[in-house]
Amino acid sequence: MTPRRRKRLTAVALLVLGVGTAAAITMTALQDNMLYFIAPSDIQTSELPPERNFRLGGLVEAGSIQRDPNSLAVVFTVTDGAHSVPVTYAGILPDLFREGQGVIAQGRLDENGMFQAREVLARHDETYMPPEVASALERAGAPHGVLE
Amino acid sequence: MIAELGQVFLSLALILALVLSTVPLYGAYKNRPALMAMAHTLVIGHFVFALAAYTALSIAFFNHDFTVTYVATNSNLLLPWYYRLSAVWGGHEGSLLLWILMLAGWMLLVSLLSRSLPRAFIARVLAVMGMISVGFLLFTLLTSNPFDRLIPGPLDGQDLNPLLQDPGMIFHPPLLYMGYVGFAVAFGFAIAGLLGGRVESQWVKWSRPWTLMAWAFLTVGIALGSWWAYYELGWGGWWFWDPVENASFIPWLIGTALIHSQAVTEKRGAFPAWTVLLAIAAFSMSLLGTFLVRSGVLTSVHAFANDPERGMFILGFMIVVTGGALVLYALRAPRIMTGKGFDFMSRETLLLLNNVFFAVSAAMVLLGTLYPLIIDMMGWGQISVGPPYFGAMFVLLMTPIVVLMPLGPFSRWGKDQLLRVVYPLLGSLALSLVAALIIVALLDAWSARAITGWMGGLWLILGSLHYLFDRKKTSRFGLPRHQLGMIMAHAGVGVFIIGVAMVESATYERDVRLTPSESVSIAGYEFTLQEVVSVKGQNWIADEARFAITKDGELVQEMAPQKRLYHRSGQTMTQVALRPGVFKDLYIAMGEELDAQSNAWSIRIHIKPFIRWIWGGALLLALGATLAATDRRYRLKQKQSASDGLSTSAASIT
């Protein structure tokens, strides 16, 4: 093997190694940070490990918002029409958070079946329904993502 | 009437673009100077009609012509005139029109400033850009016509999203688009280079200032978007790794790789094929960015399915542009582009590493952005990729860049020795490490992030300044602009890193419940809510919380965040109150009224250290690129290259 060839071979080998490592790290990071979207009806059947965070989406059930008078803690229910899940959150809710509106909460279930939200998202548009929520409602039997 | 006129103008622009994308190309192929020269006239006409169409839509907005569907959905009677004019690009159809206008503008500039380039070459560049314009004009006219009528028109329009009713939003999209579209110039040059079969270094040199300017616009556009998100969304964040942000960041990352690889190819003739590939990729990603964001695909794959016409057109157009370019590349690149070799320890290698890391970063962001779409399309469920993926990966990939960056300018082309490069920088290195520790101690911001951030940032700033003084001593004529620009940009990265490290490690954030006359103290500042009052604007009413901020008993600032309710749409909006500062921002946003009786509100208070440095760094990057782009070495000598042109255009047909 000529020195020139050997050099080229080393360079190629290093490149393959580098790209391989980068790909492996990237895929691991991707898997670790993947957040599944789960509708209230699917929680029972979900095989997600209990310590894993996920995104819960649906509508904020009418009349379900309860505030703690002395802090920012709030409890509300997220429903897809068929099932509902109680959610607790401490912090400032987004501008468009209100009863009957689509919402996505990120967090995980505690032992009592209460969803501990770390983050609550509602989109910045009155007419907009998060697509995941719309399809969750549809699957639960509410046509076109609208609850009657 | 005005809408019909606009449509006619657009159609005329399309006809000119069609001629432009064929005739000059044929002229270049057959070596007919008259046909090639037509390109310049056509480009002027194309620009005039694009401008006329754009003006027509602006007039429709200004005059509240609600019989135009696009106006009715994006404007209303209460909207002030300046937002009516910027509402032109508030939606999908109008932003396409803005895109077309900017493309026409760039083409005009290329035509005016590159008259001394070989005739055949510039004819090819303009023809390629003309093809892109054809695609966009067809897309607009066939699927997204902003001039569509709504008869009978409503008495009043819907609202422009209140989030967009903001000065930052007036400038953000146009600057971003200037960047996106600017990469079309680099793309055009690369394709023209492939078509003509010319030796590589020439056209790379010509396209460098254009690429630098496009990149500078994109940088400012992205920074402006980040700044807008910070003060407008009320969450106090400056970057969210949101798909829409990523869509603009991917072309930026590739563009960064491109301006560095262009330097190598121009100066040393090394990896020319890679440079062409990057130019194709940068523009393809710009296309992807524009379409993904504006077509609604990113928020949902269903948006794609809802409007299959648009979806198929986009897909088809991207296949033609990117696929066509890649086929041409595959056919031509191996034959005409053989790179010159270089030693392992050389400036070429350092710049190659820059390219590898930036290209991999772009791929990483692209993967994370498209992954949820792919999973959803496959029917494997709905997922999203959390910001930690992007954050961790990006820091990992950028660390080598930061470590190696100051070495670049000190290293020699072709062949060098590691010690010779590192040795003069040891002083800067030691100084930055020590200074970082001292500064962190003074700020009392002990954390791994802050320390490494300051070390990396200072290393870049001091290393760059070091080079500046070194060169000043040795060169008699002072530094040329392109080197000053590079130093400024590299130091800008340092400023940016310091900003990011401080914001991410030393921010105070508190969400509190406050009633009037209550106060809360954070990091030595006492925030007192004095009262909550009602105020009125032109098209909104608001609750305004009046705060007095004191430090050690002395009044620092009065601040008044608002919660606005927009009349027309009924949307509520958080208006943040800010006290900007070089070293820290005070930030107050109103949450919601918790209890009407006691007037209790949820309030978000942040103290953000060094956040201005993030955008300051980005501004330095853009200024540096502008400085480099305006260097005398890129100015074309009239006479000389004109005579060159004859011989080269003759040579390129063979």
Description:
The complex is a heterodimer of chains A (148) and B (654). Chain A has two helices and seven strands. Chain A is an alpha+beta fold and 148 residues long. Chain A has two domains: 1-34; 37-145, OB fold (Dihydrolipoamide Acetyltransferase, E2P), CATH 2.40.50.140. In chain A, a hairpin with a 5-residue loop joins strand 6 (102-109) and strand 7. Among the domains of chain B are: 1-160, no CATH class; 510-611, no CATH class. Chain B contains 22 helices and eleven strands. Chain B has 654 residues and is of the alpha+beta class. The longest helix of chain B has 33 residues, at 200-232. In chain B, strand 9 and strand 10 (584-595) form a beta hairpin. In chain B, the strands form two sheets. In chain B, strands 3, 4, 5, 6, 7 and 8 form a six-stranded antiparallel sheet that branches. A four-stranded antiparallel sheet of chain B has the order 2-11-10-9. Mean pLDDT of chain B is 88; it is low at 638-654. Chain B is globular, with a radius of gyration of 27 Å. The A-B interface holds A 7, 18-19, 22, 25-26, 29-30, 32-37, 55, 67, 69-72, 90-93, 95-96, 124-126, 131-132, 134-135 and B 161, 163, 233-234, 299-303, 344, 356, 360, 364, 367-368, 371, 381-389, 392-393, 396-397, 511-513, 569-574, 589, 591-592, 594-595, 602, 604. Strand 1 (34-38) of chain A pairs antiparallel with strand 1 (383-385) of chain B.
